[in-house]
Amino acid sequence: MRSLPITPMMVLFLIGLGGYLGCDPNTLQAPPDMTGEGAEQGAPPSGYPTSASVNTNRAPGAASMPERQASTILLGSFNMQRLGPSKLSDPWVMDKFATIIRHYDIIALQEITSQDQTTLPQLLNVVNASGGNYNYTISPRIGRESNGYYEQYAYVFDANRIRGGERFCYVVQDDADMLNREPFVGRFETITNGQPFSFSLINIHTSPGEIKTELDVLADVFVNVTHFEYPQDDIILLGDLNADPPRFQKLGKIPGVVPALQDITTNTRRNQLYDNFVFDYQAVREFTGRAGVFDMQDMFQLSMSDTLRISDHQPIWAEFSINEQPNRFTATSDNRQVAR
Predict the structure, then answer these.
(1) Contact in structure between 217 and 185 (CB atoms under 8 Å)
(2) How far, in Å, CA of 243 to CA of 277, rounded?
(3) What are phi and psi of 236, to 5 degrees?
(4) Which residue from 281, 232, 236 is spatially nearest to 255, judged by alpha carbons?
(5) CB 312: neighbour CB atoms within 10 A?
């Protein structure tokens, strides 16, 4: 993991400040033909495992994600659909949230709308009630003053397996106001007897009405975070993108950067692919090739109406080795190869 002093909740000026990051700001836009002539947008390279995900023919109640293992970690993302006073006061919903979180080693959360800053401590009290040791880090309230709507991002992680915290996180600042909710970046590493897997996460919730702009901006964010975090090359963008891979635009045209989930649905009504993990397949060699959806309706044996009480999004998961995996080259986002 890169050794770099980070002040608490450090704000990084990424949009429009490429020079500060050691790259030419004129080269930050991903050109339209980055995937090459005739390449399908969002398609992985030949032979790349896409979604070894959910078997839709499994028996009701069968596991829709693997169990946590000593040799791997389960990374997740979950849009909690307006986690606020009504859900906080509903023990049934809070219990389901806690059960979901305990299936993961680390999970990125979106759409925390409560103004009460004890929201995450309340949730963690339920998560840890059975003896767990989960911790969290949370962003400031993020949104636009013009519409008065704000959300927070969070990371919740098993502190017995993952090392991280507030001083290793920062918000991407967007002075041009091109994003409704600026991403929340967090640095983490596994706790293991071997070589720890260190990685940086970019937590994002795009605005459904502005994805054409925001997905292009996220391509710049991914490139800039990759440059800033160098030599850390395990960069994973995750969250609610409000788009399936064919609509990723410039985000889907960065060489080697692909989504882990394809040809699957991630919303509770099972008709849209909104949530995903996006990373450079040459750099993140720790990915086991297994990713999918935590199907709440099947896992909890619920009706659709009860499942929607939890969220209109399903949690998603991806599996990674707990130990750093050696690779000969690191593929940087401007398509240069640097020997490790």
Answers:
(1) no
(2) 12
(3) -125, 115
(4) 281
(5) 16
Q: pTM here? A: 0.83
Q: What architecture does CATH give domain 10-17+68-339?
A: 4-Layer Sandwich (3.60)
- Whole-number Å distance between alpha carbons of 214 and 180: 8
* Predicted confidence (pLDDT) per residue in 168-227, tens digit: 999 998 999 999 999 999 999 999 999 999 999 999 999 999 999 999 999 999 999 999
- In degrees and rounded to multiples of 5, residue 227 shows phi and psi of -65, -45
How many CB atoms lie under 10 A from the CB of residue 231?
Answer: 10
Let me know: does 89 contact 327? Beta carbons within 8 Å. no
CB of 237 closer than 8 Å to CB of 316: no
Dihedral in degrees, nearest 10, Cα atoms 207, 98, 52, 325:
90
Residue with tokens 């990424």: 14
**Cα-based angle 262, 264, 265 (whole degrees, multiple of 5):** 125
Q: Which amino acid is at 77?
A: S
H or E element in which residue 329 lies? strand 329-331
Beta strands of 51-103 (E only): which ranges? Answer: 72-83
